Amino acid sequence: MNKRTSWADLAANSAAENTYAGSSVNNGILGTTSGGASRTNTYVPPHLRNRPASSDPPAPAYSGPASSNDRSAYGGARWGGARNDSRSGYGGSGGGGGRTGGWGGGRGGGWDRGREQEVNPFGDDDNTEQAFSEQANSGINFDAYEDIPVETSGDNIPPPVNIFAEIDLGEALNLNIHRCKYVKPTPVQRHAIPISLAGRDLMACAQTGSGKTAAFCFPIINGIMEMQAQGVQRPSRGARTVYPLALILSPTRELSMQIHEEAKKFSYQTGVKVVVAYGGAPINQQLRELERGVDILVATPGRLVDLLERARVSLQMVKYLALDEADRMLDMGFEPQIRKIVEQMDMPLPGFRQTMLFSATFPKEIQRLASDFLYNYIFLAVGRVGSSTDLIVQRVEFVYDSDKRSHLMDLLHAQRANGVHGKQALTLVFVETKKGADSLEHWLCVNGFPATSIHGDRSQQEREQALRSFKSGNTPILVATDVAARGLDIPHVAHVVNFDLPNDIDDYVHRIGRTGRAGKTGLATAFFNESNVSLARALADLMQESNQEVPAWLSRYAARSSYGGGRNRRPGGNRFGGRDFRRDSSYTRGGMDYYGGNSTSGYGASGGYGGGYGPGVTSAWD
DNA sequence: AAAAAAC
User: Fold this and answer.
1) pTM strictly above 0.90
2) Residues whose C-beta lies under 7 Å from strand B
3) Sign of the C-alpha dihedral computed for residues A98, A102, A106 and A112 taken in this order
4) Which of A71, A221, A424, A606 is 20 to 30 Å apart from A306, CA to CA?
5) Chain CA centroid to CA A435, Å
6) What is the pLDDT of residues A511-534, one digit of tens each?
7) Nearest residue (Cα to C1') for B3?
8) Nearest nucleotide over every DNA/RNA strand to the A300 CA, judged by C1'
9) Distance between CA atoms of residues A164 and A178, nearest Å
């Protein structure tokens, strides 16, 4: 099938789909002004939908850092001093001077030379049609994503698109999208990409496995291509310092590697250079890669701080900042490092860069912290509570600690009997501690189960080897700590076992999200005992909302447990993956009204469960 | 209390 045909088909499909788009985004439930003037009740033919309301020319090209980059009527104030915001501290810094300094003519440094050597990340030089046919990227079950609720809030929200062709991402990027077999944007992509292209900051809450990486990569790559077409030039002082235009941070090394791999595919032959930097690996090779030129830097925080302190990287030219798993990046362990990178180095201030935060979960107190990094942002929540849980069958079994191993063995035996394609289905087993991971792995191997493990005490080489071996099916059982809980896209994980349950329901959501990816189904089994009572209620609520069978004994634990102080709460009634904390009645923002003043049906401050909870409610699921 | 993240 050639591109023309498939896009034509998509256009036809999307016309039908538009009913859904209109109702979910624009109905009164949300109580938000979405979509601006074009979102009215009047019928608009499909080919005219989602256009800027005015008669402005469509999607002007990048016009330089000192001028407006608005793709439509929906952009806010942009980089380079266009903002008319009155907060202090924004005097002339961060590009307010416009076309002075480093923004002359000429090309970005160094990459043209290396460009000829660019490795084809599709692993198939001549036949792009066949590339990826066996990969997880193909065959996304989009039907599973239909009818997903979407909540947007914020000021002047760009309308979603229905097909990639509706957005001008450029020929090279479109070709890569085609090569990746992405035929139709996922819900988060439909909404997030127009928001990003309009230059807006974004806080996005979307299901695990729903295509978040592409959602922030496409606009970044597109934006950098336009900057390069305009002849962006980086400072030349400090010969060994490099100046990335985009920074993507993630909480684990393997996730950074994965994002790097994805971003390389998306940016193939676009002239946009992606480099990854993370700890546990020799820094010299990473330094050499950086010296060959970098537009998008993907990194874990520790290694990046190291590079910044060595002055090998400067963030002065960063125009795009993306935090993947943003709630994790801002939790207690990470927040100081992230603040240092974002606020205490030479990164442009909010409003002078574009900031995008993505996660499947977004507790409210984390949203509050995150808002420091954002300028007049749009909040986007896509999908049901509990991520892709309609696609994941969740089971909870009462298992004493002393019985866990034999119980796991029973599960694995049963699965082996069901083995598909002669190979054992991939099973990911989460445990609480690194020692626990080692000993369970050893025990499984001794008992004839091909297992490996991944956790923070293993060398980076061992970690990467373990992941490869698991993915390939060589060792179809992977025992893991929470290092593997978030973001990792491992195709064909049929079963996630919570051998030890986490203490936080959000961690549970991320863990089970390792299966049921890309619209496929999956199974998640949890071993529950007295040491997990604090999770009982949140777990029961989550399961109930995702139409799972809740064992009566679990409901009894749930009824008994009180919600005093923990953050494991998440009342029912909210079909969305999260809520904008700015809509809380407790949160007042000094007179700014982001929401058009109307908040309706079911999303009022009192909520369905309002009375049942004490002060200090913290989860975005509220 | 544990996990992750630099050397």
Assistant:
1) no
2) A 251-254, 278-281, 283, 299-306, 309, 331-334, 337, 432-436, 455-457, 481-483, 503
3) negative
4) A221
5) 30
6) 999 998 766 788 999 999 999 999
7) A482
8) B5
9) 10
